[in-house]
Amino acid sequence: MAYKITQNRDECIGCGVCAAVCPDNWEMADDGLATPLKEMVEEIGCNEEAKDSCPTDCIEIEEV
Ligand code: SF4
Prior knowledge:
The chain has a single domain (about 5-64), classed as Alpha-Beta Plaits (2-Layer Sandwich). It has 2 helices and 5 strands; from the N terminus they run βαβββαβ. The protein has helices spanning about 15-20, 45-55; strands at about 5, 25-30, 35, 40, 60-64. The strands form 2 sheets. The protein has a 3-stranded antiparallel β-sheet, covered by helices on one side. A two-stranded antiparallel ribbon has the order 2-3. A hairpin with a 5-residue loop joins β2 (about 25-30) and β3 (about 35). The structure holds iron/sulfur cluster.
């Protein structure tokens, strides 16, 4: 099992919540928006919390 993480950057407001709750896989980029470090992960881990915490709902996680 693996998970594909997709972020709709057009809807990201740069609030930083994903990077705060899931620093293992999310960082704030130089343009002020968040970016996932890996778009394919074996373990969903804290990415689920990042998705659930995102105020604009711009993170999607899909089993592949
Ligand atoms: S929580 Fe959502 S809106 Fe906030 S920085 Fe992360 S992806 Fe962007």
